[in-house]
Every structure is written in structure tokens, then in C-alpha cells.
Amino acid sequence: MPDPVFFIPQPGLTLGHVAEAAGLLVPEGFDPAHRVDAAAPLETAGSHDLAYMDNARYGEALAATRAGICLVAPRFAARVPAGTAGLVMRDPYRVYADLLGRLHPDALRPGSQFGARGVAPGAHVHPDARLEDGVTVDPGAVVGPGAEVGAGTVIGPGASIGPNVRIGRDCAVGAGVTLSHALIGNRVILHPGARIGQDGFGFHMGATHLKVPQVGRVIVQDDVEIGANTTVDRGASRDTVIGEGTKIDNLVQIAHNVVIGRHCVIVSGVGISGSTTLEDYVVLGGQVGVVGHLRIGRGSQIAGSSNVNRDVPPGSRWGGTPAKPVRAWFRELTTLARLAERSGRDEPADKG
After folding, report:
1. How many domains, the chain?
2. Cβ atoms of residues 85 and 27 within 8 Å
3. Closest of 39, 160, 188, 165 to residue 101, by C-alpha
4. Confidence at residue 3, expressed as pLDDT on a 0 to 100 scale
5. What is the CATH number of the domain that holds 18?
6. What pTM does this model have?
7. Residue 156: what are its φ and ψ, rounded to 5°?
8. How far, CA to CA in Å, does 298 sit from each of 278, 279, 320?
9. Which of 29, 57, 206, 246 could be a cystine partner for 264, CB 3.0 to 4.6 Å?
10. Within a domain: residue 80?
11. Is 352 among the domain residues?
């Protein structure tokens, strides 16, 4: 069976282009026209490959690399081999990511799984839906009545776009995504299996649990990315909102009425309970749990596996269960470790 290549590099990138992207001059003695065919790890890169290095544990790999070009942080510059064009910069990974996008533009967002343009055979688009020119709808996708989809958007196979949903331009709706009761901005990426706009979990508890109708919406602003199998519940009486530029990993649960600010980062396994607000630039590490009706202040960071049960001030770094400022958390962990060590020393020796 042949070994397929899913992302074929685009030709035309040269050392000169790489240096320009980094805002640097081509190193003396190297040809600006030297071409870059691909990106590769330090260990396997060849003379026409681009690599990067910004982590001390890969120092030996850098010293032995055969990469044609290496983007490198200043503290590792002296270890770049003589045959490699070393471009020294403060943030090599960011420049590398930009260049990788130029080499593989098709990897930046999900495309048509059918390899076609327009509405494919087997797609079901309601006559009352409105699709701008340049929309792609893969087989098995359903677009409901009154839905509107902007130019350049791709709707993957098996996706379901509910009645009156609005999707902006240049979006990617992955395979099997369900979208209902939602307004989606421009350049939004929804990875396969994401569920946006379903019922929030609302019940009046009693001898029998009375369902509370969820009559709000989900609003996803521009440039948001939502990972595979993540769920965003629609609001109960007001909207659930995901702010501009926010990036959400796979397998995240966002409950009804949650408001997430701009440019937040939410890592896999996070659960955010209803009516909580995250201000701009908040970061939640993997498997963080946040109870309802809280406010996490602008720029705060919560360590992975923490449980947040009270408001977090802006600019804070918290961790633990229950979460607290990191200095208090570290003191607590250190004290527990010392107590455990002391307890072990005080135990009588086994005379058996």
C-alpha cells in the first residue's frame, strides 16, 4: 500500500523569503535563493528543510542538524552548525508557524473532504437557505431553511446547519458539526464533531425535574477556533458568547449563558459551568473545572486540573483544588510534602 502524503508543500519559499519574514538579513555566505522544500525536525532535516529550535533539551540535536535553515533563539545561536543558515530571533516558534502556514496553507483550516467546490451531490440545502458565491457544501451536509452562509465557507460532510443560523465568510465547518440557534462570525473554524447551540442543561429540581426551556443563542465572534467534539450550549434566557480570537481545544464543555472574552485560550477537558464570565486573555489549562456564576479577571491563568470555585482577580495566576493564588498553592504542596516525609521517618520500623 503506498504511503500517502496529506500535506504537500507549496513551492517557491527561499532563504530570502524566510529572512524577510523574520525581519532579518540573510546570513553572510549563504545564498538568498536557496529554496525550502519542507519543514522538518532538527534530527531529520536536510539541506532544503526549515527547522527551528527554542528548547534546551534539543541542544544536541541542533549541534548535529543538517537543516538548510534553522530559526533559533539567541541563547542557542552558538550551537548552529556551520553548514546551516541560522536566523537568530527572540521568538523562533512564532516565525516558524507563520512560514509553515505558507508552506502548507491547506493545513490552516479544514477543507472540503470531497475535493470539490459548490454544493456537492448528496448535500441537502433548503430552498429558503441563502448561500453566497464560493460556498462549498460536502455530501451529506444539511443546510436548513433561512440559514445564511458567507462566501468562502466550507461545510464538511454530515454537518447540520439549523434553521436561521448565520455563518460568516471564510469559515470552516468540519465533518459532523451541528450548528443550531447560533450566529457565527468570519474566519471561524469549527473542527469535526463540535456541537454548537444545543440545549443548555436547565431543570427546576424537585420530586420530578421540570425542564427549563433554553431560549437564548450562541454568538461566536470573528477568528474563533473550536476543537473537535467540543460543546457550546445555547443560553437559557440570554446569549452564550465566545469572544473574538479565542481558541478552544478539543473536548471542552461550555454551559449556557457563559461569556468568554477576546483572545482567551481554553485547553482540552475544561468544563465551564453556567453563567460564568471569562474576561479577555484568560488562559485555562487542561481539565480545569469552573463552577457557575463566577468571573475570571482579564489576563488570568489557571493551572491544569484546578477547580475554581470563587472569583479570580485580573492578572492572577491560580492553581489547585480549590484554586488559589499559585504562591499559596505551592506553599500548601510544600508543607504537605514535608509532613508526609516527617510522618514516614516517625513510623516505627517493621520488626516482622
Report:
1. 1
2. yes
3. 39
4. 83
5. 3.40.1390.10
6. 0.92
7. -75, 170
8. 7, 5, 19
9. 246
10. yes
11. no
**Residue pair 184/239 in contact by the 8 Å Cβ criterion:** no
Choice among 204, 256, 263, 293 that is catalytic: 256
**Range of the structural domain that residue 96 is part of:** 13-107
Contacts of 146 by beta carbon, 8 Å cutoff, 6+ apart? 126, 128, 129, 163, 164
CB 100 within 8 A of CB 41: no
pLDDT under 70: residue ranges of the chain: 346-352
Rg (CA), the chain: 25
Q: In terms of residues, how long is the chain?
A: 352
Residue 352 confidence (pLDDT): 56
Give residue 1's pLDDT.
74
Q: Considering the domain boundaries, does residue 138 fall inside one?
A: no
Cα–Cα nearest to 112, from 179, 165, 159: 159
Contact 264, 228 (CB under 8 A): no
Let me know if 256 is a catalytic residue. yes
Contact residues for 256 (Cβ-Cβ < 8 A; gap 6+) = 200, 201, 202, 214, 216, 233, 234, 235, 236, 240, 274, 275
